[in-house]
Each structure stands twice: as structure tokens, then as C-alpha cells.
Specification:
Elements lengths: L2 H11 L3 H24 L6 H14 L10 E4 L20 E6 L2 E2 L2 E2 L2 E7 L4 H22 L5 H16 L9 E3 L6 E5 L12 E4 L2 E4 L3 E4 L2 E5 L4 E3 L7 H4 E2 L3
Parallel strand pairs: 5-13
Antiparallel strand pairs: 1-2, 2-5, 3-4, 6-7, 8-11, 9-10, 11-12
Helix pairs in contact: 2-3, 4-5
Protein name: Peptidase M24 domain-containing protein
Organism: Candidatus Nomurabacteria bacterium RIFCSPHIGHO2_02_FULL_42_19
Length: about 250
């Protein structure tokens, strides 16, 4: 990266109080929307219908500009990281994935949650708990004061690779977020980025199995002097991820 460009990226990455307030407000609205979406789910509903409901709900809460088109995927479609909602219907036993965010005064939020429509199978449980553990390890690493992006990425990646092989977690651990959904810096295996204090990062490990499904869990964290503060305030334990079909 050229020196001048790098400087612009670094200045942009560090959020002022007002910028941070916008990101947090956008995230709180996303959480209200997700709460409503969970109540709206029922067997037979399509991904498309839920994606439309997500958009309509954001509008209702005063956030008509979304950070990106909402990702709503059921069953095997959860193995596709950038799945576009279609006519697939929700059925018992399905994995469900939501990835969405909105903007407040041009500042974005970003969150992913994975659910199970009915009691998860042994495999679903194992995959879910492994992704959650990988995320916890990465956040713990940041909390300890680590600022090197590749070291943080490696913490989560090594854990998942050891359990499931190297091809199941095919994207970076996360990215900066601000007026655009993907900002500098980046959590990637070969990233030379060092996180500046005051930047907001996503931490989003995932595992994907073609023809079966996937799990991704994503929070946003503020990088502080000594560690980090999680800006996402939505449950992600296995019990909360298990929904009763209706």
C-alpha cells in the first residue's frame, strides 16, 4: 500500500465518539430487527419472504439504508457465504443463517447469527460450538492487547483447521467497518495490518460444508488501548441458537 493511501486508511479507521455512536446505534437497530425476525420464522416460510421482512423492519426502525443486501439462508444454502435469498422453504432440522446490518448517518453495522430449527444434530452442535470457541479465542487474544491482525486471525484459524481441515474456513476472520462495510484493516492469514486503537473490527469465523450447511458467528469489537469492547449485544450460546419449530 502506498504511504499516502495507508495514512488515509489509518485516519479513517480510527473512530471519533460521534462516529462510534452511529455504529452502535446501527447495531442496536439490527438487534431489534433480529429479535423480530426470530419471532416471524415458521416452517414453510421462504428465505425471500424473511429477507423482505428484514428490509421492512429496518425501515420501520428508521434505518432505510442497509449496509448490504441481507443474507438469509436455510439448510444447505448456509454453506454459501454470500448466499442470495431465494425460494427455499424453512423445514425442521435446518440450519438458519442471518447476516445483515444497516447504516446510521452513513455508518454501518454488521452481524451474523446462526440458528437451528429444532434440536441440532450432533454434527450441527459440534460445528456450532467450534465456531463459537474460535470466535471467543480470537476476542480473548484481542482482549489481551494483541494488535497484529495475522496473529489474531491465526488464533481462530489454527483452532478450526486442526479440527476440520484447512478448507472449511475460506475467508478472513474479519474486517474494519465504518462508512463502508469493508474497511482497512483486515484479519487475514498474510495480513501485515496492525490494529489502531479506536478502530471497529468484525470477528466472524465460519465453517462451511458443501451439500450440508455452514455456521458463522459475527460480532463487532472496538479496539481499545488495552484490549477491546464487544459492541454486539445479542446472545450466541447454543441454547439461544436452538429454536422451537412452529
Amino acid at each position: 500500500m502506498k504511504k499516502k493511501t495507508k495514512l488515509i486508511h489509518e485516519v479513517r479507521a480510527v473512530k471519533s465518539r460521534r462516529e462510534l455512536a452511529n455504529i452502535i446505534k446501527a447495531q442496536r437497530i439490527s438487534e431489534r430487527v433480529l429479535k423480530d425476525v426470530i419471532k416471524k420464522l415458521k416452517s414453510g416460510v421462504t428465505e425471500l419472504a424473511i429477507a423482505r421482512f428484514v428490509t421492512e423492519r429496518f425501515r420501520r426502525y428508521g434505518a432505510s439504508v442497509l449496509a448490504f443486501p441481507p443474507i438469509v439462508s436455510f439448510g444447505k444454502n448456509t454453506a454459501n457465504t454470500h448466499h442470495e435469498p431465494g425460494k427455499t422453504k424453512l423445514k425442521k432440522g435446518d440450519t438458519i443463517m442471518f447476516d445483515f446490518g444497516c447504516t446510521i448517518n452513513h455508518y454501518c453495522s454488521d452481524m451474523t447469527r446462526t440458528y437451528f430449527w429444532g434440536q441440532p444434530s450432533r454434527r450441527q452442535k459440534k460445528v456450532y460450538q467450534s465456531v463459537l470457541e474460535a470466535q471467543n479465542r480470537a476476542i480473548k487474544k484481542i482482549s489481551s492487547g494483541e494488535k497484529r491482525a495475522k496473529v489474531i486471525d491465526k488464533t481462530a484459524r489454527d483452532f478450526l483447521n486442526k479440527k476440520f481441515g484447512v478448507k472449511r474456513f475460506g475467508h478472513g476472520l474479519g474486517h474494519g467497518i465504518g462508512t463502508v462495510i469493508h474497511e482497512w484493516p483486515n484479519f487475514k492469514p498474510k495480513s501485515e495490518d496492525v490494529l489502531p486503537v479506536g478502530c471497529v473490527m468484525t470477528v466472524e469465523p465460519g465453517l462451511y460444508f458443501k451439500g450440508w450447511g455452514g455456521v458463522r458467528i459475527e460480532d463487532m469489537v472496538l479496539i481499545t488501548q488495552k484490549g477491546c469492547k464487544n459492541l454486539t449485544n445479542f446472545p450466541k450460546d447454543l441454547k439461544s441458537a436452538t429454536l422451537v419449530p412452529r
